[in-house]
Amino acid sequence: LTLERDLVAALAAGELQMHVQAQVDRDGRAVGGELLMRWPLADGSMVPPGVFIPVAEESGLIIHLGAWALRQACAAVLQLQAAGLAMPLSVNVSPTQFRQGDFVAQVQQALADSGAPAQLLVLEVTEGLLIDKMDDTIARMHQLTALGLRFSIDDFGTGYSSMAYLKKMPLYELKIDRSFIMDTPDDASSKALVQSILAMAAHLGLRVVAEGVETQAQADFLIAHDCNCMQGYLYARPMPVAALIEQLHRNT
Ligand code: G
Ligand code: G
Ligand code: MN
Ligand code: NA
């Protein structure tokens, strides 16, 4: 409860930050990014989102936090665009947030107020969204797709849902979970799983992002199997948008 109260206060005080982690192509060029929420404390430490997002979900605060995240995402898109670095950015959307009655209106409002192009915004959802009310979920995804937004399945391969949804949903991208990437290229079954996901995605015409790429050996394996987008500490940590812009300008 203390955490919940502190989170409400931090949000109201403007203490939460949205960082961005670059996604790169096979040549290491930044082609997009994922927005990740950060909660810095006065002593310089950070409360990890893995701790406060579940609390926000539990308490309903995710509704405000999620709306804030959408507005931050629009601002980040525009900030990169203004720096000559227009690229799509992904924002994580929790199931509770997605299921709010006015979620589509919220997205529309954030886009309209900011003037950010919907085409540069990707919504990352998890397989958890698919456990129930599949038809409602798909209908809502179509509404958002019609606005120009795209969908990515986060943590792909770790959920329990049937893969039938891949056929039914308007998807743009799959993100291969870090737990699979971690054990490549040494572990034979992880390698086989990653290769299978890449092949399946190619057949379905879906873009793939490999998450948590930390070593050159992992990158080499992914590139050899035609994965064309990587995200991980090997390339870039999550950082403030201004820091990413500075880094990209320095490198070009
Ligand atoms: O950045 P880090 O790996 O610690 O993030 C941990 C978890 O928090 C991830 O599962 C990520 O999806 C989630 N997360 C980070 N930022 C956001 C956000 O803005 N909204 C939601 N719903 N989840 C987020
Ligand atoms: O669950 P989701 O994919 O949204 O969250 C991504 C999380 O993974 C973020 O918390 C981010 O900080 C973290 N992350 C990103 N790249 C790496 C990496 O190379 N290694 C590890 N261990 N974590 C990473
Ligand atoms: Mn994510
Ligand atoms: Na993930």
UniProtKB/TrEMBL annotation:
Q: Which GO terms describe its molecular function?
A: catalytic activity
Q: Which UniProt keywords apply?
A: Coiled coil, Membrane, Transmembrane, Transmembrane helix
EAL domain mapped to chain residues: 1-252
Q: Quote the protein name from its UniProt record.
A: PAS domain S-box-containing protein/diguanylate cyclase (GGDEF) domain-containing protein
Residues shown, of full length: 503 to 754 of 759
